[in-house]
Specification:
Blueprint lengths: L2 H6 L6 H11 L5 H8 L6 H14 L9 H8 L8 H11 L9 H11 L5 H15 L3 H15 L6 H12 L1
C-alpha cells in the first residue's frame, strides 16, 4: 500500500497502527518529502505530521541535519493545517529544527494564531515555536522573550502553558 493510503486509514488513536506505518515506510528515500506533501490534506495531516515528528523522536531524523528545503516545504503548509493535532505536531517540530530565515515570518504568524487555540497544548507549544523562529533576529527575539515573560505573569495562563514557557526560556 502507499504511504498516503496507510495514513488515511489511521483513526488518529491507534499508536500501534501508525508506528507500523512508520516501520513500513520510513526507509523510503522520499519518505520525509512525501509526508510534507501530505500536510495540507485534512485527511492525512494528523498522520503525516505525527510520522514526521516521530522520525525526529526516534532519532531517525536529526533536527540539525534536516535539509532546509524540508523545513521550507513545511512552512509553506502552515496555513493549511486545520486540525489541532497537526498544529501541535508541527509546533513541536518547529521548536527543535533549525529555522531558515525565509520561514521566520510564516512561523511567527502561525505560532501567534495558535496562541488562540482552544487546546492548551497547542497554545503552550506555540510559544516554543515562536521562540525558536525568532532566535536569529535579536530584536524580534527580545520581544518574544518579553511576551513569554508577560504570559508567565498572567494569572489567567494555564499551568501547562506556563510550564512549557519556563522550559522554553531555559533552552
Amino acid at each position: 500500500m502507499t504511504l498516503a493510503h496507510d495514513i488515511a486509514q489511521w483513526d488518529s488513536k491507534d499508536a500501534t497502527y501508525i508506528k507500523r506505518v512508520y516501520a513500513n515506510h520510513y526507509e523510503h528515500p522520499e519518505f520525509h518529502e512525501s509526508l510534507i506533501a501530505l500536510f495540507p490534506s485534512v485527511e492525512h495531516q494528523d498522520g503525516a505530521t505525527w510520522l514526521f515528528k516521530h522520525a525526529i523522536d526516534e532519532g531517525d531524523l536529526v533536527p540539525e541535519s534536516i535539509d532546509p528545503k524540508h523545513i521550507k516545504g513545511m512552512c509553506a503548509t502552515l496555513d493549511a493545517l486545520e486540525t489541532w493535532a497537526s498544529q501541535l505536531h508541527v509546533l513541536q517540530i518547529l521548536s527543535v529544527v533549525p529555522i531558515p530565515k525565509s520561514c521566520t515570518d510564516s512561523i511567527e504568524s502561525f505560532a501567534r494564531a495558535c496562541m488562540n487555540s482552544k487546546k492548551t497544548f497547542v497554545r503552550a507549544w506555540s510559544y516554543s515555536a515562536l521562540f525558536a523562529s525568532t532566535r536569529n533576529d535579536p530584536k524580534k527575539h527580545a520581544k518574544t522573550i518579553e511576551l513569554l515573560e508577560s504570559t508567565l505573569n498572567d494569572n489567567n495562563t494555564p499551568a501547562s502553558v506556563k510550564a512549557r514557557i519556563r522550559r522554553t526560556l531555559k533552552s
